[in-house]
Sequence to fold (309 residues):
Amino acid sequence: MKVLVTDPIAEPGLDRLREAGHTVETAYDVTGDALHAAVADANALVVRSGTDVTEELFATAEELVIVGRAGIGVDNIDIDAATEAGVIVANAPEGNVRAAAEHTVAMTFAAARSIPQAHARLKTGEWAKSDYLGTELNGATLGIVGFGRVGQEVAKKLDGLGMNLVAYDPYISEERAANLGAELVELDECLASADVLTLHTPLTPETENLIAEDELAALDGGYLINCARGGVVDEAVLAAAVEDGPLAGAAIDVYAEEPLSSDSPLLDVEDVIVTPHLGASTHAAQENVATSIADQVLAAFESKPVMNA
Ligand code: NAD
Ligand code: MLT
Fold:
């Protein structure tokens, strides 16, 4: 069988597929006609967030049995088109949860203590000690929007640092939140009480632009952290809210369009900290998701049950 891998995944995942006797072809940074040509005879396609798996791609890929997402979010895969084409879509929902939660904690500290801004100035020789008076997380309130795997892991870590926790998630129980020390509240209460608001929802029609002008106004004086998905927060409105508006700062890892364009308004605002979708980028997480998705491709080839399909 031919496995086409169009976004870089860790070598142990590729080795697992080769050791099972399959042909692994990598085609990174390939788009348009070249991508269509590469997928035409593929039996499996493995992606991260860099490949848009569209209806047109499914129409070309007549031999495809499974699309494996080496990570959590499947918003770059047209699920309806996959269903129509009879192709399994599977993800790796566990392997990068700790990495994403750790990046969220790092971004929270970066924003609350202006670490990248102070670092950049000291690197140019400026001792700007008196310009940075940070926010102490101990005793501050963390609002968590989306209390799934990553949101809960962030809650555990920041609870340990003495933050008060409130969470908004219409699909979980009060008991589940309370077990992790969080009070389950409506979105308006979450925004009003949070000093730091962190987003951990998938991107769906319901969450697209969930955080816009009114929501940022309600977060008055706070910080917004987004290590979930671009599109959940309106980027132009966010840039303005930090530059001249109600927010103290923001730290963003994910964008509506990736890679982020060099003319994004987010790049013009000093107190908007940005990283290039690094939430899952640890050695451990990448090995976990690569081997997990390889196992699922092998299961599909052997007509065994595919986990997380
Ligand atoms: P999950 O499915 O375990 O949790 C998502 C939670 O969001 C669920 O509890 C769900 O009930 C909740 N939710 C859904 N719609 C909602 C709404 N309208 N309002 C509030 N809550 C809502 O997913 P996860 O593993 O925790 O991942 C969370 C997000 O983080 C996903 O978007 C994932 O793609 C992203 N992610 C990003 C990185 C990165 O590299 N930056 C790494 C891992 C995960
Ligand atoms: C995910 O949803 O798992 C993330 O986007 C991680 C990634 O693959 O970069």
User: Anything to note?
Assistant: The mean pLDDT is 98. The chain is about 35% helix and 15% strand. Residues 48-49, 71-73, 96, 277, 279-280 surround D-malate (ligand 2) (CB under 6 Å). The longest strand covers residues 141-145.
